[in-house]
Specification:
453 residues, alpha/beta, TIM Barrel, eight-stranded parallel β-barrel, 12 helices, 14 strands, 14% strand, globular
Amino acid sequence: MTRPVARTDWHPASWQSLTATQQANYPDAQALDRAVADLARLPPLVTSWEVDALRDLVAKAQRGEAFVLQGGDCAESFYDCTSESIVAKLKILLQMSLVMLYGLKKPVVRIGRMAGQYAKPRSADMETREGVTLPSFRGDLVNRNPFTADDRLPDPQLILRGYERAALTLNFVRSLIDGGFADLHHPENWDLGWVGHSRMADRYHDIVNSISGSLDFLESITGRPLHHTQRADIYASHEGLHLLYEQSQTRYLKHRQRWYNLTTHFPWIGMRTTALDGAHVEYFRGIANPIGVKVGGSMTAESLQELIGVLNPNNQPGRLTLIHRFGAAAVEEGLPVLIRAARATGSPVLWVCDPMHGNTESTADGTKTRRFDKIVAELEAAFRIHREMGSHLGGVHLELTGENVTECTGGARGLSDGDLARAYKSSVDPRLNYEQAMEIAMRIAGLHLDNGR
């Protein structure tokens, strides 16, 4: 194939000369400029060495030496920036990663959809209810969810509030990790109090006991601690949708001679904003972060190859992750086309399966949900297809929560459509609850619920 010529005329605002979709229409341009300028003066949320460390880990996953677990809320809420909510997110990620570590026998890279997942793409700019038309809710970074004219008006100050919430979240996460919360020697710290008696929790505790016993044994015979098992780092990620927010925290580091997006470690491009000549691709091509791109049935082989050429023209390991989302009914036909296309470029990519977004549907009363069986079916098909094609599925991308929600049907407790109203809390997309998320982790790890019991 012919690779496109690499573009060189990049700067953090060069995207503004191109078509930028999924951006809010702010009525007060001067207020927006002031908010963006204020954000640009504030300290970065993450560091370049953290970003570089994650890129090295992604490169390991590309080689099959690690597995990426990316998970969290579909859309974060300012209201849920609490210690309880943050701890619950960490606990479920840590528990899932421990199960995967046990089953896969390789390191697990933990990336949370957190500390910045405040903006959401919408299918339409406007929403109509009972004859009233207002701007769509685009996430807490842009406007507010209540269906009133004042709440739905895009507010530039929310950009700063989003930065503050992200900073508070990251600060608390770092404090927990530095304080030993993520020490694999003490996984009992990760129990979720509300779970009570759960087959998933029981199986998890069996795994914990096995790992704890192994660590104690190895450390006793070597006479020294296993330092590489003591700390489980958590990296942050979000969809880089709101380009002014991303631009404001993009810094050039002279000693590295590269531009970094320092709002997060791992930003990704959503499927609605992958146009090769669009503003999002233009912005992403210039930052040094490891980046993800959502791909699916609407992506042709040729457009994927062109996209890879623009986003990773130097074939840098760890740079590019392709997060495929097809739906259980379409993955068999669609995924092989993209695997062959990416392979033909010669560029290293990390393949990650998102089995959530392609399987969203609505119940008879209009409630959005996802069927657990379809999520599992797409995930299992993805592993098989990659294996049969000599490729490697190196990660999973999930929308999940540590809360006791009923948003996706099926799973260990057999939730039905009638159960959804009991604890449906998401304002955007349905998430896996604790038991469903843990069952996914066990399936990825090649474990069965009744093993060892």
